[in-house]
Task: structure prediction
Amino acid sequence: MNTGLRRSTGAYAGIPFWIYPIAAAGALLVMLPLAAMAARVNWANFVPLVTSQSSLDALGLSLRTSAVSTVLCIVLGVPLALVLARGSFPGQRLLRSFVLLPLVLPPVVGGIALLYTFGRQGLLGRSLEVLGIQIAFSTAAVVIAQTFVALPFLVVSLEGTLRTTGSRYEAVAATLGAKPATVLRRVTLPLVLPGLASGAVLSFARSLGEFGATLTFAGSLQGVTRTLPLEIYLQRETDADSAVALSLVLVAVAVTVVSVSHRGPRRPAAPPFGSRPVPGERTTAESAAGGDVR
Amino acid sequence: MTFQLEAAVAARSFDVSLTVGPMETVAVMGPNGAGKSTLLAVIAGLLRPDTGMAHLDGRPLFDLGAGRSAWTAPHHRGTALLAQEPMLFPHLTALENVAFGPRSRGLSRSRARDAGRHWLRAVDAAELESRRPAELSGGQAQRVAVARALAADPGLLLLDEPMAALDIHAAPLLRRLLKRVLEGRRAIIITHDVLDALMLADRVVVLENGKISEAGATRDVLQRPKSRFAAGLAGLNLVAGTLTEHGIRTADGQDIAGLHDPQLDVPHPHIPLPEAATASAAGNGVQERSAAGNAGLLAPGRDGVAVFPPSAVSVFLTEAHGSPRNSFPVTITDLEPHGDQIRVRAGGLSADVTPAASADLGLAPGMKVFFVIKAGAVSVYPA
Result:
């Protein structure tokens, strides 16, 4: 039991040996820069650096706006994922392409697009201006920019889960007399909760790291729109030690969020050959039927 | 107070009309892809037929066609569906699963749980109430699924091969349970197992290629099958053709001598009776009716079938003559164990021989042999 549960079952892994060095190179590419940065941290001044007023403002703003945009992503993304996965209507494929666009779009382009929508001279901005609402260069703009770039993460993750789960449980629930709203609340959402959770975590992490769209659309006002990534970029020009210290904070927050909520991939669909079945006389058919999500 | 259905789905060449009485269980049998699951999906409201109508105890389920487009959503139909897999909601306990239907019907949480407990007891699964589906064996899970379907108080219970995914130990238990709970309840059960039809159903409907090819009381269908599928269920050989004086003649001109079945079963509404039979049926006396019926129904030229058990077929390497025997040249397609016999399959026919005889004759797939049947073992009756 010294090499972890999976290894200890002695199940055949089916991986050629030369995969390991390549995988190691991939892991290094991710981990080495983080290590290099951690090595540059000025530990003596670390606490004063990260607790300066501007740093605390930026961190607080980042956490608050990311939390709000994650909620927005859930509120808007769950219905989007549902209609994309389960609905059928003309233009569905086109809609999916557009929803996923921010994944591949440079964030600065997203920021410009948002500016021409909500900006003072923008498509909606002009009408909002009349109502006395100004969005661009406000904290609301930060949230909108973050939601814009983070929404596809939630939609992709949840739509995938909805597809793999299938709609057979929902059909059974309906024949038992549950109306569609009840089916959604008591069957669909609980079944896709893992996908929803990991989508929400990804959205939060993406919001936390958002830079380009925020800078373009919301600007960089301390305490109002200057989130942690913007603060780091600004500090880098003048005070490298401070930038590195704040970067480390951001890494720590991201690692914590991901490791707490994202418990890694689910266990495999089929048990490995030669593994002992769980207590009782479970057959393959019933373990398949009893598995949480297919 | 009946369930009545007429439905057509053009894309699946499905066209079925069916009536189920208030306390009747109907078994739907047929080869794979015959449209059995389509039938249940249409009834449950999970699939919209192109045309047709259905109503359950006076409530319309759908009415579709030129200028008509009434449609009742699945959750308003009262047609609970029990599938091959239990499909228990994995995030709910057994009790919460069973209470799901009552809760959806608007019962309070505690009353729904009471109803759930009642139905768990009814399927002998009271002790499982706090378990999650992942902690149940296949048989236990299916019992809970039965309770869940019954708790929804369906006007029509739909069972889609409920025993198919169970192992050989769990299936008989569930079959006994279903026999108990289906008593006095209206249900349609899809099954591949003739035992289910015998134990659970009052009537059998055979679906082939989206159409009903045969329907009747379970006993009648198994004793006097009229389709090759039903004959296969009953373990009988069936040859179709036209009636002759001494038996039937197949489409390719082969004569099969047999005994005209003296029994005249109760005329089925689906089969129009010739005047002679109807007229005498109105008269009195069973003897007289069957005699007259025979004369009318077995008129040469009508479509008929010859039916005989595989045990009545002998296998010879050369043509064996001697009346009254039927002898067909056939090519063996398969040999397989069948009880303590060897079943010899040749095209659509089969013969049972002892292992010793099979070894003596050196039977093997691809061999040309003769199937010989005594005329006395062949029943001939109209299709």
